[in-house]
């Protein structure tokens, strides 16, 4: 590994950036990393092989049920991708002393970059008079990623949401941790402001609520009273200035008014409710083993490109795997997180509760957005698995 990079980090960091870019080439760099790091590869295989066996059984059952081969393989790929990302990141952290902090820093940089791109899209639209919706559609076509959009009437403000946005609130949690335990720095405040702006531009009520919850949780767990009070005052003063003294206040108002519009929310919530009712009915008919992965409701299709994908992906996975299959998958995930902590003596009540809260947020996120699996799901599960280690490394690097 070190023959390619002086500190041995170039390949895994580049793989992380490719994961964030949703590029399939990340697989090549993961394989290259394991070529130079056999211990990491052995750990990866030890962790993932039972999950592969589970997915193969799920595929076999699904094909016997008569589900489309293409859809079965498509959903299996989504689940497998999240597991590859999860265990690649975990294995890198296991074999590298400062791996957790390296992953966190790389992810933080990636999401700062995403936030800057979102803001530049709006700035370019305002400066050139271009419709921001057209810019987003062009980027979506070139990038090959579905970006959720929503225009705000009489404004250049537009919804910009990508699947990776599901991770941003978790990055914000650790950024607040850093901010609370260091002297106030412009760079920390700017980072937090950019990440919060990125969440705001998703125009997702769930992401807003999740970000607020994780900010408050980080304040509660990571800040001493003095730093908590000082940071709160600084954030409030800056927020007051931005909202009341700059044009950004009008932008924020436009976003909030658009997303809180009762007619818009009613249409969105009605669609989600119809999907949930239909999925519940399907679950009642096959509650234990489900219909198999790749299954979709013929009279309730959200996307003709990916028919098995629903807004409430957590519930649709119960429809696919059944209650037994879904509980087995969740149990395997939690077991892979908790067993190493228990054996090493690191598992205490605090770490257990926070890890379970993050796992619950991953599950809840899948109830409002179809981002339960894939690369974004794998990174969120990484935070569930390595929460205490990341917090520890952040603290250690602050002391340095």
TrEMBL record:
The molecular function terms of the Gene Ontology recorded here are:
ligase activity
Q: Which Pfam families match?
A: Wzy_C (PF04932)
GO CC terms in record = membrane
Q: Which UniProt keywords apply?
A: Ligase, Membrane, Transmembrane, Transmembrane helix
Q: What is its main location?
A: membrane
Where in the cell is the protein located? Membrane
Q: Would the keyword Ligase be found if you checked this record's keyword annotation?
A: yes
Q: Which domain of life is it from?
A: Bacteria
Record bears the keyword Coiled coil: no
Note the topology in the membrane: Multi-pass membrane protein
Q: Where are the transmembrane segments?
A: 14-36, 48-64, 79-95, 107-127, 157-176, 188-208, 228-256, 276-297, 317-335, 347-365, 371-390
Q: Where is the O-antigen ligase-related domain?
A: 191-329
Put simply, this protein is called O-antigen ligase-like membrane protein
